[in-house]
Amino acid sequence: MTEPSKLPHHGVPEHQPAAGGIAARARAAAGGPQYLNGLNPEQREAVETLDGPVLVLAGAGTGKTRVLTTRIAHILSQGRARPHEILSVTFTNKAAREMKLRLGQMLGQAVEGMPWLGTFHSIGGRILRIHAELVQLKSNFTVLDVDDQVRLLKQLLQAENIDDKRWPARMLAGLIDGWKNRGLSPSQVPAGEAASFGNGKGGKIYATYQERLKILNAADFGDLLLENIRLFRENPDVLRQYQSRFKFILVDEYQDTNVAQYLWLRLLSQAPSRPGQPLSAVIPGELTSPRLRGEVGAQGAPGEGDSPRAEFEDRAPHPDPLRASSARLDPVKDGEREQTALKNICCVGDDDQSIYGWRGAEVDNILRFEHDFPGAKVIRLERNYRSTGHILAAASHLIAHNEGRLGKTLRTEDVDGEKVTVTGSWDSEEEARAIGEELEELQRAGENLNDVAILVRASFQMREFEDRFVTLGLPYRVIGGPRFYERAEIRDALAYLRTINSPADDLAFERIVNVPKRGLGDATVQLLHDHARKRRIPLFEAARARGRDRRAEAEGARLLARSRHAVRPLARPARGHLAYRARRDRARRERLHRDVAEGPIG
How far apart are CA 515 and CA 493, in angstroms? Predict the structure, then answer.
């Protein structure tokens, strides 16, 4: 059976008829747009339901990506929005690339006009760069990776005299990431959680870390959403701008969203408030939510901390919490008040596939969709195009034991296929032995090893299989390994570029200060740090200042004096350094020509 996503795509005409016009009615009478061909009835309903909130419960292999891309094509075809008025959020960069590829096949060049199609963090980063000054950053701020984040936290732990072996910086990085995934700023972290690290100093270090990021003109991965939420909270005019811009919002993998992503979406998915209306009409006041602290992360004592999500949950009872907040603040009588239009938001997800709870994801976000968006339409995609009947039956029987689910039954029109075989092993070594023996049997039967794949949950589980295959002499190929941007030489090259782009990026400068070797050790870097802190300047400026400091020897800083000539070329601005080298080379050429012209002496 051919999956709808594999069917040939027919482009949307460049010039679309006006909605409701004669041409549009003629096209509808002719059977509708060709891009709807191949959709089953449930998929077509999900594509054509454009008004109001829609939740699409899409099981595995039911063509949800096809639904999302076709829905965007339908919105543009019907003239309901222009490309830049659609916010389409995916969970991974791979999913975003897949959507852009399919949209390109359906719409042609129109996909190039969709700047708001991407992941939560890529779109959040785009918004932050536009309004960086409002969150005490510059538009060219650096996004730190985990390695830089850990190195910065190590410096802060050292400044607080906290033993890094007992309280590892990587552990603190995980705690901070968890707090940011829950939308908690340093002042909102429950006291019990903040005191669980570094002899009660976890909360203080989190606050210092955020301050240090601002000095470095940097943000970490969690800030791309956390700072967005703060931007919208503190600047209602900015929030109103984006609420008015996005006429349609589409969200993929909604079951894997965390609290920060939920808050970000809830802010953007509300109808714009009137200019001058208090921000509390959009974001109600600070309220605590024991429910949130009881569901995710470490637990704090009752009454500790403010829960950002409570702003949408712990209000006075009302069938529509969004309208309730406006009703309390709008003095106009109910008979004269205009009805608030429901936002055209469509979330696609599967409550049975939420696997990122360890990373802060809350499946409750999808379970509460009808509560968050009253009047929402729920559409179930239950026809599977990927698996055989026996596989679906086994999976459905297992999933049926889940308690928190909205419920759906996957079906297929494909053959039943082979039955699923389940085996158990005492440990990983026994598992590797059993699989190795089965592979040998397949090989003796004439099967090609290229047709066999072994899927593991985590990369560390591959070790036992590799050891066993080496013992048996079975050829194998490992798919994966270090990512391109995680290689040391690539990190070093990027650090040079980051330093050129943002001289205040101390972490990048510290990484390349002795790459390649320049005779600059930890002692020299520590002197630069002390000088930078004393003058409150970046390390780059400190290196330039100390490199020019002829009084270093008189002050007894013999170590720094010896490394002065090594620091100076590194700290010289890139353009000035190139000009210096050009002048030096020109002088050498002139001397060479002069020597040749004068000829030999005597």
Answer: 10
In 3D space, the residue among 126, 56, 31, 61 whose CA is nearest the CA of residue 87 turns out to be 126
**Cα four-point dihedral sign 30, 33, 35, 39:** negative
User: Which residue would you say has higher pLDDT here, 51 or 356?
Assistant: 51
Give me the pLDDT at residue 106, please: 80
CA 281 to chain CA centroid, nearest Å: 29
Cα Rg, the chain, nearest whole Å: 30
DSSP H or E stretch at residue 65: helix 64-77
pLDDT given at position 428: 87
Confidence check: pLDDT of 310 > 90:
no
Higher-pLDDT residue of 234 and 109 is 234
What pLDDT score was predicted for residue 397? Answer: 79
pLDDT at 319: 34
Query: What token pair was written down for 196?
Result: 């669980």
pLDDT tens digit string along 138-153?
999 999 988 899 999 9
| d(C-alpha 600, C-alpha 602), whole Å | 6
Q: Which residue has the higher pLDDT, 229 or 58?
A: 229
More confident residue, 478 or 522: 478
- The whole-angstrom separation of Cα 36 and Cα 34 is 5
Q: What percent of the chain has pLDDT over 70?
A: 71
| Residues 108, 112, 116, 117, Cα dihedral to 10° | 50
Residue 41: how many CA atoms within 13 Å on its side-chain side? 0
**Rounded distance between C-alpha atoms, residue 534 and residue 493, angstroms:** 29
Give the 3-state secondary structure of 530-557.
Answer: HHHHHHCCCHHHHHHHHHHCCCCCCCCC
Encode 348-377: b = buried (16+ Cβ within 10 Å), e = exposed.
bbbbbebebeeebbbbbbbeebeebbeebb
Burial of 304 (0-12, 13-18, 19+ CB in 10 A): middle
* Contact (Cβ atoms closer than 8 angstroms) between residue 229 and residue 308: yes
Instruction: Report how far residue 299's alpha carbon sits from residue 64's, in angstroms, rounded to the nearest whole number.
Output: 36
Both tokens of residue 207? Answer: 């606050």
Considering Cα of 378, then 102, then 363, then 243, what sign does the dihedral take? negative
Q: At what angle do helices 259-268 and 120-130 cross, to 10 degrees?
A: 60
Q: Amino acid identity, residue 590?
A: E
Beta bridge partners of 344: 248
Per-residue burial over 9-30, b = 16 or more CB atoms within 10 Å of its CB, e = otherwise: beebeeebbeeeeeebeebeee
pLDDT-derived band of residue 360, with 50, 70 and 90 as boundaries?
A: confident
Residues 6+ away with beta carbon under 8 Å from 70: 35, 36, 39, 43, 47, 106
Strands 142-143 and 218-219: parallel
Collapsing DSSP to helix, strand or coil, 248 comes out as: strand
**161 near 239, Cβ under 8 Å?**
no
CA atoms within 13 A on the CB side of 529: 15
Cβ(263)–Cβ(183) below 8 Å: yes
- The residue count of the chain comes to 602
User: Taken in order 257, 258, 261, 265, is the CA torsion positive or negative?
Assistant: positive
